[in-house]
Amino acid sequence: MISPRNLVALALLAGVFIMEGFDIAAMGIAVPRLEAALGLEAASFGWVLTGILVGIGVGGATLAPLGDRFGRRALIVAGCLATGLFTLATSTATTTTGFLAWRFLTGFALGACLPNVSALSSEIAPAKLRATVMAVVSSGIPLGLFMAGVTAPAIIEAWQWQGLFYVCGGFAVVLAAILLFVLEGGPPKGSKPVEAKADDSPKLPQLTLFKTPWLLPFGVFAVILGLNALNLYLLNSWLPTVLPQAGLTLDVAAQVTGVANLAGLAIGIGASFLVDNWKKGPALMLLFGSMALSFITIWLTAPDQTRWTMLLMVGVGGANAGGMVLPGLAAHLFPARLLSSAVGMGVLVARIGAFAGPPLGAAMLAANVPPQVFLGVAAIPATACVLMALLVGRALLVRPREEAKEQAAEAAVA
């Protein structure tokens, strides 16, 4: 059972993901308003929208591992506080260079924080509920995206575009203060040292993922994660800019984006249930196949607010759901001694896909690609995910086979 204190801790950790989702959406919602406010064209923001992703990758690779040494609490609190301060500073930017600098620093702080949030939520959760708890905590991202979309019109009316960063940055600072008192301090507790002695793991266990037999399951996991990340950041970065070109107002476009992201909560929970209790490959094919069909339908139809909203709930919601479901899939693909490394390295590889999303959208905007085609392009990565899901069945065979070999070896020694 999870203690009341740990339930509060998990809720607050989910709040960190809510903050991340709101932050991602805030920049995308602000972009189409900056031409009138600052004279900055939307198409010039491709690298600004990528800046936060680069920062997350750098922060995750350089600072996040310090949580293993100094404790997850220190990295989470410091990262959340720094994220809030850099987000507040983003409201002072007046040039694309200024936005790029603050977004990179925001991402750098998030990169130090988020991996430790995921790791701590896994450590708090009961062993049998670890994947489910991780999925529920990470569901804060689509919730944050939804909250940004539906509250944006009121926030902007009160404080202009800068208000988006006031609200998100202020929330992060307050959340950091609360986390300081709720989370337990000190180095992380757990069985890592015992596991290391028991299986004589290498000093860099993540390198094992790039060798036989783990290369296949890791490759399948990382490629699907990367393709889905491309869609996630392409859509959430540019949807508030693209939808007005299809006839929606800026406020309605922000709200449609929020509703579409909220659908990811229901889709993610449903898909996670299927992955845990049904055939995992077909469950993923159903998820990504539905996404692909929704974007193809948009490609082939004239703009219509009601129809497109329903289709985007499936497509954009599915991309958010993929981010929730895939870490749970990793729990089935890899043994405990490789799970943290697999998720960490998978997220790092996924940044390649995430980096590509915003510049791809900027290039299509600069080429005056129609909204139907812009959104239809998202069907390509979704279809590629369906094809990769065909390999999930083979990838799932690796773990039981290797565990059987280890058990046989232990029996022979005994």
Question: Can you give me a brief rundown of this structure?
Answer:
Helix content is 82%, strand content 0%.
Order of helices and strands: HHHHHHHHHHHHHHHHHH
Radius of gyration: 21 Å
Distinct helical segment count:
18
Annotated CATH architecture of the largest domain: Up-down Bundle
3D shape: globular
The helix content is over 70%
SS elements, strand count: 0
At the fourth level of CATH, the homologous superfamily of the largest domain is MFS general substrate transporter like domains
Q: Using the coordinates shown, work out and report the CATH topology of the largest domain.
A: Growth Hormone, Chain: A
**Which secondary-structure class do the elements indicate?**
mainly alpha
Biggest beta sheet summary: none
Q: Would you tell me the overall average pLDDT?
A: 85
Which stretches are low in confidence, meaning pLDDT under 50 for 5 or more residues running?
Answer: 188-201
Tell me the distance between the termini.
35 Å
Strand content: under 5%
- CATH level 1 class label of the largest domain: Mainly Alpha
How many separate structural domains? 2
Describe this structure as you would to a colleague.
This protein is mainly α and 414 residues long. It has two domains: 1-186, Growth Hormone, Chain: A (Up-down Bundle); 195-414, MFS general substrate transporter like domains (Growth Hormone, Chain: A, Up-down Bundle), CATH 1.20.1250.20. 82% of the residues lie in helices and 0% in strands. The protein has 18 helices and no strands. The longest helix has 35 residues, at 4-38. The radius of gyration is 21 Å and the shape is globular. The two termini are 35 Å apart. Residues 188-201 have low confidence and may be disordered.
